[in-house]
């Protein structure tokens, strides 16, 4: 498999390969279950842009390194340092990645093994299709760690799984099996772990056999309705989330996670 061209800044958190019309992008942080930090978001944005600009690429496959996770969401160690000005910069970083994924005129397939949670599941929502192994787990984590999944889940999740189920996922932060995710419409296929690569490759081949200009127009047309939902809600929600970074309630969720203890959010429900 030949490697794609090198960027001006070498990747540390992401792997990029291109061959046979397929760009394969891998979040390469297996030691932290492929949790994403600022550098990861920026490298993913660059890699997605490379795939979008490469005329030989017809489909993109996004995966996580190792067998434990597609992406476990944002790196909590990074989140512990956020205050509103840093949070606003982070929101712009998120916007850049989701925009290049939505505007790319080529399908993006998420290949999921293990955990696909929090921001990882929001990255999954920005992909066009998802194939998961039987051991995959899906869910949102925002309110469990003092945050809110305003980067896609609050806008797009209900379109895939329905309003009621989306509220359940966001409010409870429960984990769902691959079969449950399939039944609710969050993903396209569930296969045995040893069949995941071959299944995704077959799906890529199926897409590559189709007219690229037709695929291009179809993706943008399919995105039109949900683009309105996402972009109209993201900006005010992003500012609200950025404004609470570093306050006592936000830090309780982050500190509890780092200290491996249950968060005590009940203390914030008290009469004034």
From TrEMBL:
It holds the Pfam family ECH_1. Coiled coil: none annotated. Gene3D superfamilies: 2-enoyl-CoA Hydratase, Chain A, domain 1, Lyase 2-enoyl-coa Hydratase, Chain A, domain 2. It comes from the Bacteria. CDD domains: crotonase-like. SUPFAM superfamilies: ClpP/crotonase. PANTHER family: 1,4-DIHYDROXY-2-NAPHTHOYL-COA SYNTHASE, PEROXISOMAL (PTHR43113:SF1), NUCLEOSIDE-DIPHOSPHATE-SUGAR EPIMERASE (PTHR43113). Belongs to the enoyl-CoA hydratase/isomerase family. This is 1,4-dihydroxy-6-naphthoate synthase. It comes from Xanthobacter tagetidis.
């Amino acid at each position: 498999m030949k490697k794609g061209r090198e960027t001006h800044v070498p990747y540390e958190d992401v792997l990029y390969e291109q061959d046979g019309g397929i760009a394969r992008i891998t979040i390469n942080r297996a030691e932290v279950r492929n949790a994403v930090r600022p550098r990861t978001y920026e490298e993913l944005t660059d890699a997605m842009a490379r795939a979008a600009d490469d005329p030989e690429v017809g489909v993109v496959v996004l995966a996580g390194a190792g067998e434990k996770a597609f992406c476990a969401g944002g790196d909590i160690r990074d989140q512990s340092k956020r205050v509103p000005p840093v949070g606003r910069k982070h929101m712009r970083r998120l916007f850049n990645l989701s925009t290049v994924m939505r505007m790319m005129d080529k399908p993006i397939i998420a290949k999921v093994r293990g955990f696909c949670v929090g921001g990882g599941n929001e990255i999954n929502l920005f992909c066009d299709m998802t194939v998961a192994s039987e051991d995959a787990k899906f869910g949102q984590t925002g309110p469990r760690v003092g945050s809110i999944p305003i980067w896609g889940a609050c806008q797009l999740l209900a379109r895939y799984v329905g309003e009621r189920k989306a509220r359940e996922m966001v409010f409870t932060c429960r984990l769902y099996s691959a079969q449950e995710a399939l039944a609710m419409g969050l993903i396209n296929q569930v296969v045995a772990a040893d069949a995941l690569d071959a299944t995704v490759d077959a799906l890529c081949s199926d897409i590559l056999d189709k007219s690229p200009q037709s695929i291009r127009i179809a993706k943008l047309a399919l995105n039109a309705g949900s683009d309105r939902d996402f972009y109209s809600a993201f900006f005010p929600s992003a500012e609200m989330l950025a404004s609470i970074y570093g306050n006592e309630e936000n830090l309780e969720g982050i500190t509890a996670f780092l200290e491996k203890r249950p968060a005590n959010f009940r203390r914030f429900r008290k009469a004034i």
